[in-house]
Amino acid sequence: MTMKLAGLAGLMVLAGCEVPPQGTSAEDVARFQAAVASIGCEMVGESDYLPVELQAGLTRQQATDLVSFHLATGKAVELESGGARLVVGDCTPEPAA
């Protein structure tokens, strides 16, 4: 069942339907993005997750699911340190000059 849901979620992303992870909403995504921007756009460790969870009103599972969602949809990139950096909204990188 879990594999079917994961596969369905992957197909929806590929089809352009960016459906937030189960148990989250579009509003959660917006609050998550704002909270991550407020801490410098990177989600690496406990010191990043705790303030984001508190600001956005999310559980740890929801926060990790949203990081995975942003990675899967190209709205975040993996860091060499093992974390992720959002590249959307206030975290959008400046164009190279």
Automatic annotation (TrEMBL):
PROSITE patterns (UniProt xref): PROKAR_LIPOPROTEIN (PS51257)
Domain of life: Bacteria
Name of the featured protein: NADH dehydrogenase
